[in-house]
Amino acid sequence: MDLRSDKPYALLRHGLGYVYPSIRKHIKADVAIMGAGITGALVAWHLIQKGIQPVILDRRHAGMGSTAASTSLLQYEIDTPLHKLIRQVGEKNAVLSYLLCRQAIYDLHEIAKKLPEKPAFELRPSFQYASYNSHVKDLEKEYLLRKRAGINLQLLTANDVKNLFGFQKGGGLLSADGGIIDAYPFTHALLKHAQDKGAIVYDNTAVTHIDYDYNNVVLQTEWGHKVTAKKLIIACGYESHHYLPKKIERLHSTYALISEPFFGKDFWHENALIWETANPYLYMRPSSDNRILIGGKDDAFYNPTRRDANIARKTRQLENSFHKLFPHIPLRTDFAWAGTFASTKDGLPFIGSIPERPNTLFALGFGGNGITFSLLAAQIISDLLSGKNNANGKLFSFDRRGAGVA
Ligand SMILES: Cc1cc2nc3c(=O)[nH]c(=O)nc-3n(C[C@H](O)[C@H](O)[C@H](O)COP(=O)(O)OP(=O)(O)OC[C@H]3O[C@@H](n4cnc5c(N)ncnc54)[C@H](O)[C@@H]3O)c2cc1C
């Protein structure tokens, strides 16, 4: 698959990162991970903490799939608002999903602090405005439910929005919990650390065939060498559907830009992450290098040629939407890119096993919160592989209530 356009900003800014060799011999391992994006890297980090040294294989270079295109907002707010998610999966599961995503932000922060490379991480509030006045009622409902769940947030009036953000909207929700971490350098820092602790990473090594067995899993690679593992983790991002018997996700195209750098550092209230209630939604955040990153204008198709041909037009649309909100900020685009992403029916990820694929676990963080979902997948899977029960696994299982194609 073609997951993204050629020049996402993270790649231009951070370059190739670490590179790893391709496989040159047959290997036996307790655990093999397919995919060295942020999901595979977080799974590897968690396994290392539990004394398991995985073998990680990627057909590209590490982090070069969707991870390199990510705009890296860390939000606990799942694409499906809590009041709708409750209808789909029940109140207990919906609230727990929100709380786990909130905790994931802080867990990611702790991991970043522990890594020798100290990848930049910033906690930021998250602000969702009502795109239309008719959406305010739903935000009020959402506010009460999240408050009841113990989430720290404020319901803003139109006046509050004007005072804090300077634009005219009927209301919004300002949540205390949110963050940013650039997914691409973070992935490299995680993989390097895993390698230093005994993991083996192979770049440029496509798995071309898998034999699932009741004793082990045998991965055939493009170079003719095999990896035989007791357990396999599939963390192939939006390419993971090749390994599933039925469709569970819908693919979309999405667009992003980053501005030229500004001299000032304060753009709006606490430089919050901003998004809106419309679907697809516009979102934005200041970057750690004083630029403004904007994304959205999604298309409901996977066609990389059409997607990439749209970049110039979508960039203008993103700029126009930004200028309507912030006419006083003289934003000029420096770089623009596009990528594919996947959504699920209930907005939740798929984590765990299916009977058709013995000894295999899937870590599929589909949805707008891909990175926080990757963290949850890593926690659940590493617990399972180290023999610890993780009750949260049921929330994201393939046979949960509410599962299905978006
Ligand atoms: C433009 C854009 C903006 C986004 N913004 C956000 C955001 O703000 N916040 C957020 O949380 N999420 C965001 N996401 C989603 C997030 O980036 C993804 O959820 C995340 O990067 C997925 O990581 P991954 O490791 O699962 O997949 P990937 O990064 O794609 O990694 C999977 C890896 O598996 C490898 N692979 C596949 N098949 C094989 C095979 N047969 N053999 C060997 N290797 C294989 C691929 O080469 C790839 O490197 C965004 C996505 C896009 C495209």
- CATH topology of the largest domain: the name is FAD/NAD(P)-binding domain
Question: Distance between the terminal alpha carbons, to the nearest Å?
Answer: 20 Å
Large-scale geometry: globular
Report the CATH C-level class of the largest domain. Answer: Alpha Beta
Question: What would CATH call the architecture of the largest domain?
Answer: 3-Layer(bba) Sandwich
Structural commentary:
It contains 10 helices and 19 strands. It has 406 residues and is α+β, with helices and mostly antiparallel strands. Helix 2 packs parallel to helix 10 and helix 4 (91-114) crosses helix 10. The radius of gyration is 21 Å and the shape is globular. The protein binds flavin-adenine dinucleotide. Residues 3-4, 34-40, 57-60, 64-67, 69-73, 183, 206-207, 235-237, 239, 254, 256, 295, 339, 341, 365, 369-372, 374 line the site of flavin-adenine dinucleotide.
